[in-house]
Amino acid sequence: MKIYFAPLEGITNHIFRNTFDGIYGHVDKYFSPFISPSEKCAMTPKERKDLAPENNTGINLVPQILTCRSDCFIKAAAELHEMGYSEINLNLGCPSGTVCAKGKGAGFLPETLALQRFLDDIYSYGESGGVKISIKTRLGYYNPDEFYDLLEIFNNFPVSELIVHPRIRSDFYKGEPRKEYFAYALEHSKNPLVYNGNIFTCKDYEELVNSFGSALDPVMLGRGLISDPSLADKLKGLETQTDFAKFKQLHDTVYHGYQDVMSPDINVLYKMRELWSYWQALFDGKERDIKKLLKAKKYAEYDEAVNRILQG
Questions:
Q1: In contact, 240 and 234? CB cutoff 8 Å
Q2: Domains of the chain by residue range
Q3: What's the pLDDT score for residue 287?
Q4: Dist CA 92 CA 9 (whole Å)
Q5: What's the pTM value of the predicted model, to 2 decimals?
Q6: Distance CA 216, CA 204 (A)
Q7: Per CATH, which fold does 3-235 belong to?
Q8: Are the CB atoms for 140 and 147 separated by under 8 Å?
């Protein structure tokens, strides 16, 4: 089976990707947090550094673009192609209010005529320039039935992979994914499909296999793979339980990696707090120490709490 690592803004940057891949691996494709190009700037210096090939050696990385303007997409895609990327992903799934208010991400989905013109432009560019373009989408903005028309639109284009997160914008990440719409996609999509949504355990995956069979390949994991970094190994039958020695190595390497490039203490600790908002699920009975960790403002306070958590 193939496993893809979903992009999580502020979390799955090159420091985390390299560390994860070196310690855990068994991920077939990583997707970068989105870049949002403008007329003046295809990507910021920070985004360019995160996507620089020398910062992603040995990783099968797909950059993701968030925009509703085809000229901005093409400008960014052309620069990424020059950097060596042969596949670009279009974000049609971000549910953020600020993103959707600008007609980007999931906010682009109701504008079907504009979306079709946009796709005409970017796939013309992709075919002429030898760039594959995949799409990560939700079912719709207001109603999941929007997906029927959206799938017809996507079927008109050579989408390298259609990654379906079976929720609508207002669902955000709550509730159960609307699996019946993915089943519809399996029957009607002319493009290769990838399932994304709520795979946190092997049991979650097995239930999906019971519904979709061997068609459930590849799958994209995001929050589930952050919450349990061993999950890809478990799904591939390489481990049966979480390896806490490997987890400590992941934690320490990411932590020190941020210390090397960021200051003061609090900025690094903000990054680590984001990760611990997911990791805390692994440590039942350590709620008190995790609470102290999340409030830490200096390395010494943080280190003390982490040592208590990881030493058992």
A1: yes
A2: 3-235, 244-310
A3: 94
A4: 15
A5: 0.95
A6: 12
A7: TIM Barrel (3.20.20)
A8: yes
Residue 79 has a pLDDT of: 97
Q: Are 235 and 205 in contact (CB under 8 A)?
A: yes
Please state the length of the chain. Answer: 312
pLDDT tens digit sequence for 213-241:
888 999 999 999 999 999 999 999 998 88
Q: Six-digit token pair at 260?
A: 């090397």
Residue 88 identity: I
pLDDT at 203: 96
CA distance 67 to 69: 6
CA separation, residue 41 to residues 38, 45, 46, 83, 150 (Å): 5, 10, 12, 16, 30
Of 204, 202, 185, the residue nearest 193 (C-alpha): 185
CA dist., res. 265 & res. 82, Å (int): 36
Bin 35: left if φ > 0, else alpha if -120 < ψ < 50, else beta.
beta
Q: What DSSP string runs through the chain? A: --EEE---TTTSSHHHHHHHHHHT---SEEEPPPB---SS-SS-HHHHHHH-GGGSTT--EE-EE--S-HHHHHHHHHHHHHTT--EEEEEE----HHHHHTT-GGGGTT-HHHHHHHHHHHHHHHHHHT-EEEEEEEEESS-TTHHHHHHHHHTTS--S-EEEEEEEGGGTT-S---HHHHHHHHHH-SS-EEEES---SHHHHHHHHHHHGGG--SEEESHHHHH-TTHHHHHTTS-SS--HHHHHHHHHHHHHHHHHH--SHHHHHHHHHHHHHHHGGG-TT-HHHHHHHHH--SHHHHHHHHHHHHT-
Q: Are strands 162-168 and 193-196 parallel, antiparallel or unpaired?
A: parallel
- Phi and psi angles of residue 84, each rounded to the nearest 5 degrees, phi first: 115, 5
List phi, psi (to 5°) of 32. -80, 155
